[in-house]
Amino acid sequence: MRHTTRKVAGAIAAVSLSLCATAAGAETVRIETGTSAGLTTLIPQLLAKSLSNEGVDFRINADQTLTRSALSLGVGRIDAAIVPPPAFNAMSRGVGPYKDSADQAKATAAELRSLFPFAGGVFHPIVWADSGIETWEDMRGKRIFIGPPAGAANQQITTLIRLASGGFEPDKDYTPVRLGWGAAIPSFQDGQFDVLVMSSPAGGAAIEQIGLQRKIRLIGVPAEVLKTEEWAEQLEVTGETNAVIAPGTYSGQDNSDEEIAVPAYAMVFAVNRKMDDDLAYIITKTYWENIDEYKKSVAELAQLPTSEPLAGNNIPLHPGAVRYYEEEGMAIPDRLMANQ
User: Does the pTM exceed 0.85?
Assistant: First the structure.
């Protein structure tokens, strides 16, 4: 895929969550994102700044539970949302957090279309270095944060714990703690739970800040687990991949000399299928034309892959996005081509 770049001025901190000062007549896009400290919000923030030059105004509502945002998107209450692939999978089948309204969830899922996926980050299993927890077995009977209530991360994290520990189940072998992402780190620091499984880019500032208060330890997935068929099957279902947190990534990490094996997860920038084709095209094109500059401007984005632009995506593409990829000469998998 060809890439051109534009100048992205200033640091990411200067990007407002609501870019209101746009030109008269700008196209407004209401979008819901995940934690304000993660890539699910950072990517739309950067894209919003680029799109302001195209007459498009992003109104970003961060720190949302993305399984609910997917529903809001499907019924047209918002125009775009960051959707985890497992959430769309569950939504399409009416299971998991959607089991109580399965028929509605399936119908709503049919209204979603994608523009592009991106690497959302990696799961960080974190404990205090002086907690006595050094292995997954040591987590037996402990309180473990598993993500927001009804969030897609619940399934991903509980499955991670089950496979890495050799069979731990919530409410039996440990106490699951469900809170919004925004409350996760302060609650961990206050001692409300023993293990924090946090989603963040490797090297994320939020994780670094935890270790400045008190030494932390990261618990990786055992090598023998990574070789199992069940682990491989889980990665395929969730759109995850194997990743590592390199030695020396965090200054406050007690075992910083170790390479920590963890799963990396994808996120999808999704829109309602009724979005105007030209608008969907502009958003998609602007993202890819600026991706190299985004990666240069923010260190946490250096991990973003561009060699496989559709990797991790399981939501059919919007026609406007299809137009862009076809212009770039990309072969689009049949599974990502919508019927309408």
Answer: no
CB-CB contact of 12 with 159 (8 Å): no
Residues 327-338 have pLDDT tens digits of 999 989 999 998
Q: 158 CB contacts (<8 Å, ≥6 apart)?
A: 146, 169, 170, 176
For residue 1, give the nearest of 337, 321, 339, 222 by alpha carbon.
321
**Residue in 119, 111, 115, 157 with CA at minimum distance from that of residue 136:** 157
Tens digits of per-residue pLDDT, 38-69? 789 999 999 999 999 889 999 999 989 899 99
Q: Fold match between 12-119+267-336 and 121-265? A: yes
CATH of 121-265, one of 3.40.430.10, 3.40.190.10, 3.90.650.10, 3.40.50.2000: 3.40.190.10
Which candidate, 92, 112, 96, 129, places its Cα nearest to that of 32? 112
Q: Percent of the chain beyond pLDDT 70?
A: 90
CATH 3.90.650.10 fits 12-119+267-336, yes or no: no
